[in-house]
Give the backbone structure.
Amino acid sequence: MTDNRLPHIMIDAETLGTKPGCVIKSIGVITFRPWLWAVSEEAWANDITKLKLHVSREWCEFSGLTVDPATERWWQDQSEEARQDAFGNKDKEIPLLDACQAVRKFILDIAEEKGVYPGRVWCQGLTFDLPIIGEAMHRVGVKEPWYHRYTRDTRSIYEEAGIDYSGVFHEPIRDCIAQAAHVSEAKTIIARALGREVI
């Protein structure tokens, strides 16, 4: 049976700062359907589509984005795997404009209504990923593809469902998948408690 419900979207960014206007090193975007979690984790995982982009620091700085020295030092204490992914893919890096356009296209190719995605868009902390990517898009003249009323914070639903998860990978696709899995689990817990379907 065809599932015509819009998938949810999870976005994660690895950056050289913690506030809008900072340099972005990589972006991950995935689609997921929380209601498939109750079917099976395999069905849920097989339904995911994803986009991963490595972004040029030089092009970010050319566009007016800046580096926070404290965050740059923080990266030195992260795992070798995380540092390699963030800084060891120079051959895959693209200009900031191209990255922003790719994110917008990936999302709006799923569905579009008046220039934005008419479904839920998640990130881990509403003061981080979406505002940072949104500001980067503003700097290069790309319109955000999400509607502010449909943005969602993972930490809020984790708390409501009694799930303790903070995330430790610092690789955007792995973080997106882990966060989406916990959101799906949380929505399943809440739906069962309320006696309704997962939405």
Observations:
- The radius of gyration is 17 Å.
